[in-house]
Every structure is written in C-alpha cells, then in structure tokens.
Amino acid sequence: MGATSMPRMNVITSLLCRQVLAKTSSMQNEARHNKGSSSPSMGGMKPGNTSSVVVIGDHNPQCSIEEVESATAMLTLYGNLIAGILGAITAPFWGKLSDRLGRIKPLAAASTVILGSEVVMVLVAKLPDTISLNWIYLTYVLEGLSGTFILVMALASAYAADCTSASERNVALGWFHGSMFFGFAAGPVLGGYIGMSDGKSRPMLIFYVALVMRILGIAFLLLFVPESLLHRQARPTPSQAEPKSLRQTLLEKTKFLQMFTSASTANAKTRQDLIALAAVNTIMFGALMGAMNVMLLYSEYTFGWGNKESGIFLSVVNLFRAIASMVVLPLAIRWLRPLYSSQGRHGGFDRLDLLLMRTSILSDIVGYVGYAIAPNGVLFTVSGVVAAFGAIGLATSEASMTKLVGGARTGELLGALGFLQAMARIVAPTVANLVYSWTVARVPQLVFWGVAACFTAAGLATFWARPNADGDKYDFEDAVPLQAKDLSDVE
Is the C-alpha dihedral spanning 360, 366, 367, 369 positive or negative? Predict the structure, then answer.
C-alpha cells in the first residue's frame, strides 16, 4: 500500500490530464478553424500540449494546471466516499464471518478482492484508449467490498488476539501496527527505487511488483499460516441456520454495534469500558486520517515542500511510528508491568493500559500543537516525530478491548470497530479538508489546533474507563498457544 499510494495518485492524475488536454486541444483547434487564427491557450497551457505526450503514472509538469487539479480532487473525493461507505458496511460482516470460519480464509478473501482492485487499476492505466476512465471507480468499489485496509488490520489484530494471552496482547498488536507503519515508511522509498531501477522512469513497474507480492502474500496465508481459532469456538455457519425473512436480515445488519451495549456483553462495567475504549480508538484513528492530507498540503503551502521533502517527512514519521509500536511499547510493558501487577499472571484491562493510552494521547496533543506553531520544516518534522508515539495508543486501545470479550467474539468486536473506523475515515478527512480550505488564506494552521482538541477529547474519554484491579482476570479469557490451534487436530 505504501509503495503504490503515490504512483496510484499519479496514474489518476495523468489519465485525467489526458482527457483535459485532449478536450482543450480540440477546443483550440476548433477555435483556430473557425477564426482562422490561434486562440489563447486555456488553463495556462501551451498550444503544443496534447494528451499524447502524457506519460501514464509519471509526473507530468504540463498537468500542473487548475483543471487537472480540480478533476483529480473530485474523482478521489467520490472514490474515497465510495470505498469508505462500502467499507463501513462490509467490515463488520467480514469480522463476524471470521468468527465462524476462522481468520485466515476471510483475510485471504479480502486480500483477493484488493488484488482485483489493483488489476483493474493496471488495466485502465495500460489501455487508456480502450477502457474508460470511469472504470477507476470500480477499483474503489472493490476496495470498499474488501473492507479496505482497516479490515485487513482488524483481522490481523483478531488473529493476534486469538493466539496470545492478555498480558502479551499489547505487544502483539503493537508489532502488527508497527509493521503497517514500517510499510508506510519503506513503501515510498522502495517504490521510487523500483520505478527508477535502471535509470529510466518506469512508473508502472511498481504496480507489477505489487501484484506479484499480493499474490505471494495470499498464497503464503493459505499454505503456511496456521488457523488461530479452535474448532470449538466456531459458530454455526449461515447455511446451518434456519432461513430468515428479508426484514430479519435487514434488522440484523444494524445489530453489530449492539455488542458494545447488549446485556450479553458480560456486565455493565465491561460495556462501559468497551464504549469508552471504542470512543478513544475511533477519535484517535479519525484524527490521524483527517490530518494526513492536510499535513502535506500545509507543508507545501507554508514551507514550499516538493515531492522529495514530503516523501522524506512521511518516511521519517512512519518510521518512528513503527519504532514506537515495535520497540518502545514492548519495552514499556516489560519495565512497567511489575509496578502494575501484584501477581505473576496478568489478566485483563488494567491501569498500565490506561497509562500507555494517556501518554500516547499526550504525545499526539504536543505533536499537533507543534505542527501549528512550527516556524520551519525542521521543527514541523520534529513535531511529527513526537506525534508518532501516539501509535502506541491505537494498538493499546484495540488490545484492551479484546481483553474485555470472549475469544469467540473477537472478530465481531474488531469488525464493529472497523465500521467505526471506516466512518471516521469518511467524516474526518472531509471535515479537515473543508476547514483547511476555508481558513488557508488567514489561519492555515487552525486545523491542527482542531485535531489537538480531538485528541484532548480522546484523553478525557479514558477517564470513563475503569480498569481491573491488579491481577484480576476475566472469566472468559480463552487464549491458547498457537501450536494448539490446528483445526484438524481438535476433537
């Protein structure tokens, strides 16, 4: 994902640029034919600019015009809305399906749908004169049906929750989140190297490499990764259940969030903790997603950054997010656990989890205030490094929620959380971009103060959660070693 994110945007921009240039060139030719003289160029273009000189997927200077920028913004806006809405609908059901069939099959299926999205993108880019640009929207539809990357991370987190004890879960989920952030950091560098591997620009090569890597990843999942769920934890499949009416089916499609409030969720304290932690996680995720694009726009506008500087900034910030999740979080748990657990074995959501979340939220607040007041690019990047340690909060809040439900409902929980994150992915970037567009001329940094306020709200929400007493353990915690979870050996 990290390696293809920028090339994907370049493909969309260059395809739209071909359309705009071809249309404008046609209008200029018609005007010259009608008037018998050259007409003024449109959109800052020179008469010689035509769609034939646009390299698909590469940076084309002649495409840096208002018409192309506007068209690109509108297409990606509609596309992200399509993917976000479909992802919000499908993510909970992928999660619930994983409780029935295990984690591996749904994860491989979702990855296959994402593979289909990437295949469509390659076909549209390679055959621009044959395949309509509107087929780009199919890539967003498929991305949404797959549950988006949110679903992939949710299923990976469910897998980690299945095969780790409560005391190890924060570390395990930290590794998963850290791996994702490391991919975001290394992806742009790897993509740039592959695209220029022989000294020439080959923008489509990274897509071919990504397709091969995706196929290998799916094959590795199906052939070598053991299933994490015990057979006895699996619920009856839909085919074994009695047929349901259309009304019952539609009603059930809105029930997945009820696990946060239903009486079947242990007790009132557990429900309160789940709601508080879900609020913390969703606010943090939404704030992160909302600020992502604005951060790049602001840095280019304020500090004059180009693609190179923006790429370095993203790589540095995501590298420190990976370090926070994969190094700092495990060390903090190892050193602080003896101070927060009076017994040898730790069970549930406790005061250490709260401390980690509050500390990470504080780092986010400091980082985003730093973004707002940074006078130069160096301090802006330093603020990003400080905010990067907020990644600990995402992993810790997810791990804490899995400690509050039984293993048979972990997928359902993370699917419901995936819905909330998908909704945040729709709302937060829209609000952040609107605020930035309204205030960029006078107070462009206002959006960062708003994001800092959101993190403050997340910090306040942590005071609604009430951790276990030291050493207490939830009765339904049923994690077992991964080696014992081969379905064929059970029973």
Answer: positive
Residues 6+ apart with CB under 8 A from 232: 490, 491
Q: Three-state DSSP class for 253?
A: coil
Is 284 within 8 Å of 356 (Cβ atoms)? no
**Which amino acid is residue 326, in one-letter code?**
M
Using a cut of 0.90, tell me whether the model's pTM lies above it. Answer: no
- Per-residue pLDDT of 25-76, as tens digits, reads 666 666 666 665 444 444 444 444 444 578 787 767 777 676 776 677 678 7
| Secondary structure (DSSP) of 261-297 | T-TTSS-HHHHHHHHHHHHHHHHHHHHHHHHHHHHHH
Q: How far apart are CA 104 and CA 107, in angstroms?
A: 5
pLDDT of 266 reads 53
Question: What tens digit of pLDDT does each residue of 346-387 get?
Answer: 456 788 889 999 999 999 999 999 999 999 999 999 999 999
Q: What is the largest CA-CA distance in the chain?
A: 91
Counting Cα atoms < 13 Å in the Cβ hemisphere of 39 gives: 15
Percent of the chain with pLDDT over 70: 74
- What's the full length of the chain, in residues? 491
Cβ pair 435, 450 in contact under 8 A: yes
Separation CA 102–CA 235 (nearest Å):
10
Q: Which amino acid is at 287?
A: A
> What letter does residue 405 receive in the DSSP assignment?
S
The secondary structure of the chain, three-state, reads: CHHHHHHHHHHHHHHHHHHHHHHHHHHHHHHHHHHCCCCCCCCCCCCCCCHHHCCCCCCCHHHCCHHHHHHHHHHHHHHHHHHHHHHHHHHHHHHHHHHHHCCHHHHHHHHHHHHHHHHHHHHHHHCCCCCCHHHHHHHHHHHHHCCHHHHHHHHHHHHHHHCCCHHHHHHHHHHHHHHHHHHHHHHHHHHHHHHCCCCCCCCCHHHHHHHHHHHHHHHHHHHHCCCCCCHHHCCCCHHHCCCCCHHHHHHHCCCHHHHHCCCCCCCHHHHHHHHHHHHHHHHHHHHHHHHHHHHHHHHHHHHCCCHHHHHHHHHHHHHHHHHHHHHHHHHHHHHHHHHHCCCCCCCCCCHHHHHHHHHHHHHHHHHHHHHHHCCCHHHHHHHHHHHHCCHHHHHHHHHHHHCCCCHHHHHHHHHHHHHHHHHHHHHHHHHHHHHHHHHCCCCCCHHHHHHHHHHHHHHHHHHHCCCCCCCCCCCCCCCCCHHHCCHHHCC
